[in-house]
UniProtKB/TrEMBL annotation:
Membrane-crossing residue ranges in chain numbering: none
Molecular-function GO terms, alphabetical: proteasome binding
Chain segments carrying region Disordered: 273-327
Biased composition (Basic and acidic residues): 291-308
Record-linked InterPro entries: Ubiquitin-like_dom (IPR000626), Ubiquitin-like_domsf (IPR029071), WLM_dom (IPR013536)
Taxonomy, superkingdom: Eukaryota
Record-annotated WLM domain positions: 120-307
Pfam families: ubiquitin, WLM
Protein name according to UniProt: WLM-domain-containing protein
Domain spans labelled Ubiquitin-like: 8-77
Length: 327
């Protein structure tokens, strides 16, 4: 009987990096995991190895028995030692906060007589994102937290949430390798909203306006689960209110009316966009148009662009349709 002693050359990819390795066919999967632990700092107990979508799980099997051949490409998933430590620290802090809250709830509370208008403050504190958490096992979680915090503090988003009484339990992120193709997900009508913050190669974050656009889409799912006409109508309204609010702020207008014309004066960028579009087959805007006509063209051009972007976004939303997930 001839024993094959020729080494197997394979490549393991992990978070955009490639690790060429050479092992004997009769070495076990455990030996491969030990090398990967040294190279990537992903502990063996947390490693997930995929060969053509199939998980390699039995550590006692030899490489030949697992089906690994010369030139094979294997994908590695899993958090590093450092990220696991950060996750445990976060879990410990969360457990500590919950313990403090339970102890406070068990103590009798003194009744405090109100001395001023507090109802608006109570409403304001209710309609918001109650928790913000990046995924601690992904690179640079603090950068992701900063982006999530910026979204939660965005005055236009807060304005929309107050107007429509939207409350979200958790604002967090989607991992590209775990949910490829998805840009956003709303779990249980606002229990949690998950957004795709990172690029496919984990080498940066997506643009703020793009992520905020997805957030408006997922906020609409607090009311409507499917991408039906009711959803489209409300989503269009939210996008318009965000644009109204920002335009009002830029113009120094503190009162927001019911229509664009009440507070809106076209900005140079939108004005140029309106001149550059032929809307519904009509001729481009003329220099002789009135202010109202320019406003109308700007609104039509902007909403047409947003509608097109929204149609594309629906294909990458995991909240409705066959791709919907429970968590």
């Amino acid at each position: 009987m001839t024993v094959n002693t020729k080494p197997i050359s394979l490549t393991v990819t992990y978070r955009g990096g490639a690790y060429p390795l050479s092992l004997l066919p009769d070495e076990t999967l455990s030996a491969l995991q030990a090398q990967l632990e040294a190279l990537t700092s992903v502990p063996r107990t947390h490693q997930k190895l995929l060969l053509k979508g199939r998980k390699l799980a039995d550590e006692t099997c030899t490489l030949a028995q697992t089906g690994l051949k010369d030139g094979a490409k294997v994908q590695l998933l899993g958090p590093t030692f450092e990220e696991i430590g950060g996750l445990r620290k976060t879990e410990d802090e969360q457990a500590k906060r919950e313990r403090i809250l339970r102890e406070r709830a068990a103590k009798p509370q003194a009744k405090v007589r109100s001395t001023g208008p507090s109802s608006s403050a109570a409403i304001s504190s209710k309609y918001r994102f109650h928790r913000i958490e990046p995924l601690p096992h992904l690179p640079n979680p603090e950068s992701a937290r900063s982006l999530l915090q910026r979204l939660a503090d965005d005055p236009a988003i807060r304005h929309v949430m107050q107007n429509h009484q939207f409350a979200v339990g958790l604002l967090t992120e989607l991992a590209p390798h775990e949910h490829p193709g998805l840009l956003g997900l709303n779990v249980n009508a606002g229990q949690a909203i998950k957004l795709r913050l990172r690029t496919d190669r984990y080498d940066g974050l997506r643009t703020y306006k793009e992520v905020r656009r997805v957030l408006c889409h997922e906020l609409t799912h607090n009311v409507h689960g499917d991408h039906d006409n009711n959803f489209k109508e409300l989503n269009s309204k939210l996008n318009k209110e965000v644009a109204q609010y920002e335009e009002a702020v830029s113009q120094g207008t503190h009162h927001l009316g019911e229509s664009w014309g009440d507070v809106y004066e076209p900005s140079p960028g939108l004005e140029a966009e309106a001149h550059g579009h032929v809307l519904g087959g009509s001729v481009p805007a003329s220099a002789n148009d009135s202010v109202e006509e320019r406003r109308r063209r700007v609104l039509e051009a902007t909403m047409r662009r947003l509608q097109k972007e929204e149609e594309e976004l629906e294909q990458s939303c995991g909240t409705a349709g066959p791709s919907a997930m429970a968590s």
